[in-house]
């Protein structure tokens, strides 16, 4: 089975109290996720607070992660931005050793047209030998990658292999599943709707909540891949409150609170993000204890 079938986790980047990258915490997290049965990891996606890391820090985190994972599970690097030339230069200088693909979000802030989005991803695809997974997340980028643009990219570039979809737009999902080429991967990027997305044909999820609860989530996703919806419904319902709390005061602050409770790493985030409020933290700790 394709390594991107199942559960991927968009890993947080643990920080020490002074804001420096916590490599012990990152090592703990990697082992926690692999032990939890996930199929692959994403290093320095949005959840990894990549926007607040320097270029040198990103390269260190990628290298450390590849060495720690040691090909035990699939590994994806998050490389994106709103300056196409800069993104391409990052990709050219990226050490691909140990990595299976690149995940790249649609450009934020600029609000490009669909043609601009197409040309952005064309430049990325033409400058890497790694498979590329598109990432559509309008709530963060301010623009949507249309189903037609995704299908056009999938047909034009063999190394564009799938899309992480976090638009929440089921009309778009229907069009994409109808028109995409065979083998192009439709992946949930939105924990609360992974189950209905997989019912439409998504092959899995790139998850936030999986940082804390990899076993519970990956078990649910495998039930869905095996068409056991009755079993998956039970698992989904047990995770609803936890999932809601993860995003109440922002991500990844929520899941870092859960990880601190689990003893994996601390809950420090870098500005402009801040830790969750005390009431939310109390609720997260309670729910984590009930599920872990």
Automatic annotation (TrEMBL):
<dbReference type="GO" id="GO:0008840">
    <property type="term" value="F:4-hydroxy-tetrahydrodipicolinate synthase activity"/>
</dbReference>
<keyword id="KW-0456">Lyase</keyword>
<comment type="function">
    <text>Catalyzes the condensation of (S)-aspartate-beta-semialdehyde [(S)-ASA] and pyruvate to 4-hydroxy-tetrahydrodipicolinate (HTPA).</text>
</comment>
<dbReference type="InterPro" id="IPR020625">
    <property type="entry name" value="Schiff_base-form_aldolases_AS"/>
</dbReference>
<feature type="site" description="Part of a proton relay during catalysis">
    <location>
        <position position="46"/>
    </location>
</feature>
<comment type="subunit">
    <text>Homotetramer; dimer of dimers.</text>
</comment>
<dbReference type="InterPro" id="IPR005263">
    <property type="entry name" value="DapA"/>
</dbReference>
<dbReference type="Pfam" id="PF00701">
    <property type="entry name" value="DHDPS"/>
</dbReference>
<feature type="site" description="Part of a proton relay during catalysis">
    <location>
        <position position="109"/>
    </location>
</feature>
<comment type="similarity">
    <text>Belongs to the DapA family.</text>
</comment>
<comment type="pathway">
    <text>Amino-acid biosynthesis; L-lysine biosynthesis via DAP pathway; (S)-tetrahydrodipicolinate from L-aspartate: step 3/4.</text>
</comment>
<feature type="binding site">
    <location>
        <position position="206"/>
    </location>
    <ligand>
        <name>pyruvate</name>
    </ligand>
</feature>
<keyword id="KW-0028">Amino-acid biosynthesis</keyword>
<dbReference type="GO" id="GO:0005829">
    <property type="term" value="C:cytosol"/>
</dbReference>
<dbReference type="GO" id="GO:0009089">
    <property type="term" value="P:lysine biosynthetic process via diaminopimelate"/>
</dbReference>
<keyword id="KW-0704">Schiff base</keyword>
<feature type="binding site">
    <location>
        <position position="47"/>
    </location>
    <ligand>
        <name>pyruvate</name>
    </ligand>
</feature>
<dbReference type="InterPro" id="IPR013785">
    <property type="entry name" value="Aldolase_TIM"/>
</dbReference>
<keyword id="KW-0963">Cytoplasm</keyword>
<keyword id="KW-0220">Diaminopimelate biosynthesis</keyword>
<feature type="active site" description="Proton donor/acceptor">
    <location>
        <position position="135"/>
    </location>
</feature>
<dbReference type="GO" id="GO:0019877">
    <property type="term" value="P:diaminopimelate biosynthetic process"/>
</dbReference>
<keyword id="KW-0457">Lysine biosynthesis</keyword>
<feature type="active site" description="Schiff-base intermediate with substrate">
    <location>
        <position position="164"/>
    </location>
</feature>
<protein>
    <recommendedName>
        <fullName>4-hydroxy-tetrahydrodipicolinate synthase</fullName>
        <ecNumber>4.3.3.7</ecNumber>
    </recommendedName>
</protein>
<dbReference type="InterPro" id="IPR002220">
    <property type="entry name" value="DapA-like"/>
</dbReference>
């Amino acid at each position: 089975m394709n390594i991107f079938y199942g559960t991927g986790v968009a890993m947080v980047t643990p920080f020490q109290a002074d804001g420096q990258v916590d490599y012990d915490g990152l090592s703990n997290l990697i082992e926690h996720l692999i032990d939890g049965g996930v199929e692959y990891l994403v290093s320095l996606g949005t959840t990894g607070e990549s926007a607040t890391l320097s270029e040198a820090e990103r390269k260190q985190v990628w290298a450390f992660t590849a060495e720690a994972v040691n090909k035990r599970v699939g590994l994806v690097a998050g490389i994106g931005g709103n300056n196409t030339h800069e993104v391409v230069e990052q990709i050219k200088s990226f050490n691909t050793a140990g990595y299976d693909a690149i995940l790249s979000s649609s450009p934020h802030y600029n609000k490009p047209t669909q043609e601009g989005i197409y040309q952005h991803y064309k430049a990325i695809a033409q400058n890497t030998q790694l498979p590329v997974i598109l990432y559509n997340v309008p709530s963060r980028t301010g623009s949507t990658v249309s189903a037609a643009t995704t299908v056009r990219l999938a047909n034009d570039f063999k190394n564009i292999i799938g899309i992480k979809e976090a638009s929440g737009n089921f009309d778009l999902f229907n069009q994409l599943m109808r028109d995409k080429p065979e083998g192009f991967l439709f992946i949930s990027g939105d924990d609360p709707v992974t189950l209905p997305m997989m019912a439409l044909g998504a092959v899995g999820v790139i998850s936030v909540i999986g940082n804390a609860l990899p076993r519970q989530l990956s078990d649910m996703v495998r039930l869905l891949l095996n068409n056991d919806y009755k079993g998956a419904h039970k698992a989904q319902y047990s995770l609803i409150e936890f999932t809601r709390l993860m995003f109440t005061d922002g991500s990844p602050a929520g899941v870092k609170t859960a990880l601190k409770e689990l003893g994996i790493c601390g809950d420090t985030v870098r500005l402009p993000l801040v830790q969750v409020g005390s009431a939310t933290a109390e609720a997260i700790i309670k729910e984590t204890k009930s599920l872990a």
